[in-house]
C-alpha cells in the first residue's frame, strides 16, 4: 500500500510566542501557523499586537520566549542559511526613500547588494512595476510626485523584487501591514485585487494581511484570526462572519462598545 507523502511544514509558525514592551505584555504564548499557499488575515482591535506579529515574522523583532519557525526551522537559523524562504514586507506607510527615484526605491536591495548591471536592474524594476499595474515610465519619478495609491503599489513592487542570479531568491511569503488604510473604496478594491493576483501569478506562495477594513478582510482571506490581548480568540473564514455568534466576532464586526473587547 502506498504511503501518503509527509505533510509539508507550515511556511511560518509561532510556537508559544510572547513579546513585551517594557511592562506591557503584547503577545502571550501565541501559537499560529500559515500553511503553504494560504492567505491569512489577522484582525483585532488597535494596539493588540498585529504589527508586532508581522515584525516578528520578518525578523525585525525577536520574541522574548517561544519560537518563530520559517519552513520548520527557527528564524535565526534560517537567516544564517541565507533564508531559503524569502519574506517580503509591505509597510503600512509605503516607507519609500523620498530622495530616491521610484526605480532606485524598487531596485534598492539589488543596487546595494547584487553585482547585476544597472541596466538589468532597471529592466527588472520596470517588469515589477508592470506586475503591480503601474506604467513603467513612473520609474523616473520621485515618490512625492505619486498619489498615495501609486506609492503603495511601488512598495508592493519593491517587496516582490528578486535577484535572478541568486538561486531560490523568490519571495515566498508576503506580509502586508494595513495595505488599504487611508485609501478610498475604489483604490482599496484595486489593491485587494492586486494582493490576490500577485499570489495567483506566483509572486508569492502565501501572504499575511493585517487590516481593519472589512472589504479587505472579506476579499483577501482564506482564513481569519481575531487576536485580542495577545491570544487568538477566533479563527474562521469570511463567509462564517455574519452568522457567527462568537462574542469577540460579533463585537468586532458589529463595532459594539459592549462585549469582551474593552
Ligand atoms: N517598539 C516598541 N516599543 C514600545 N512599545 C511598542 C513598540 N512597538 C509596539 N509597541 C506597543 O505595543 C502595542 C501593540 O502595538 P502594535 O503596533 O503591534 O498593535 P496593532 O494591533 O498593530 O495596532 P494598530 O491596529 O493600531 O496598528 C501598542 O501598545 C504599542 O504602543
Automatic annotation (TrEMBL):
* UniProt GO MF annotations: ATP binding; ATP hydrolysis activity
Q: Which InterPro entries match?
A: AAA+_ATPase, ABC_transporter-like_ATP-bd, ABC_transporter-like_CS, P-loop_NTPase
* Every ABC transporter domain range: 12-254
Question: Mind telling me which CDD domains this protein's record contains?
Answer: ABC_Org_Solvent_Resistant
Q: Record keywords: Zinc included?
A: no
Query: Which of UniProt's keywords are assigned here?
Result: ATP-binding, Nucleotide-binding, Transport
Domain of life according to the entry: Bacteria
Instruction: Specify the protein name.
Output: Glr4114 protein
The organism is Gloeobacter violaceus (strain ATCC 29082 / PCC 7421)
